[in-house]
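Deliverable D4.2, example record:
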Amino acid sequence: MIKKLRIYDPWLFAFAVAATCIGFLFIFDAGYATTLQKDKGGMPDEFFHQILFAGIGCGVAWVCSRISIDFWKKGSKLIWLVNIALLIAVALVGQRVNGAKRWLGHSPLGIQPAEFAKLAAVLYLAGYFAERKAWPKRIKPCANWMLQVDNVWVPKVKRCLPAVWVFGAAFLIILEPDLGTGAVVAATAFFMFLPAGVTKKSIIAALVLACLGAGVAVIKEPYRMARMMHHTQRWSSENVDDLEYQTVQSELAIAEGGIIGVGPGAGRAKQVLPVTTTTTDFIWATVSEEFGLVGSLIFLAVLGGMVFRLMQLAKRATSRFSMLLFYGVAFWIGIQTCVNVMMANAMLPAIGIPLPFISSGGSSLIALWIAVGVCQSALAPARSKPDRPDDDGGSNPTPPTPKRRVATQSGLRSRKVTAVRVPSQTR
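Output generated by the structure prediction step:
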């Protein structure tokens, strides 16, 4: 049954299913409180939408698992270009919701290309680094400066272009504005440089440029700068009910939860937080308040186990592309989880980023399930083609040896041995 479903690693699939079910639980919990506030009855809209998107995500993941990993490798550039086109389309004709232009189409059936950019960036970098050759350690200096430019500097600039494209896409996302998602895309790309074998100098240069870009993004928008400056003073009388209201209420909820929590459904954070963040960016406040430290660690262990399993699969990968794919998805889920939890417990300012698999959001959930499907595709056994001797399916089959008569020493086999008359030696 598992083979028919194309589940080549049951652990990875189980972690994804468990995290999605945990999301159902808390989206229903927090969304039900929101429904009561709106004087509505029945099932919360967020819960119904999440079930719908989970079904779509699982179906698309199943299709992706049946596609050869070579297709994902060869099509990684095209997937990246399509995602860039979608990000540009958002800037031109995107729908503005709550002051941000992030959607193509109307909610809840619209898509958010920035969420798919995380997976597209992982595929693009994995495909690029899988084919990139190592830079020669020693390059002889050229006396002619024109030759020096052609032989050294131009190739170096070309090797840096993929990083430029990824950070450019992150910049487009930040302009939506969506600083959290843009930061996740950039951070995931940066961490992928490590297993890809990028030199230390290039990593340091990328880190410096990323920090400068983040600083410019914060300074450019006054509300971001104010949020950063007031975060350390969030408990002051002028901030506690204004810019830092969400962070303060989330921090109070986590403290109220204590060790074992106040009990399922008994939390107050979902009743005082803004409706738009109760089931999305600050859903961790409800988790921590109602299930306490013990329950929070158990739920975090599900996402942590998924990241750990992806790391294990990366070490066992049979190809460089698969290895980088597993690492990239692991970095993506790990970074996004850490940022969301740190934002909820006030270690970071509120930047608006969902908790993987658990926060409500169709684009986020579908993108994550597609990543699971692509990872399952990378684990599929190689398909052998015996009619092609040069097929590279892990080994090169030896062509069949033509039959011929061979004389054996014992002479007991059924093969006939023809006697050869040797002329006698003459003296």
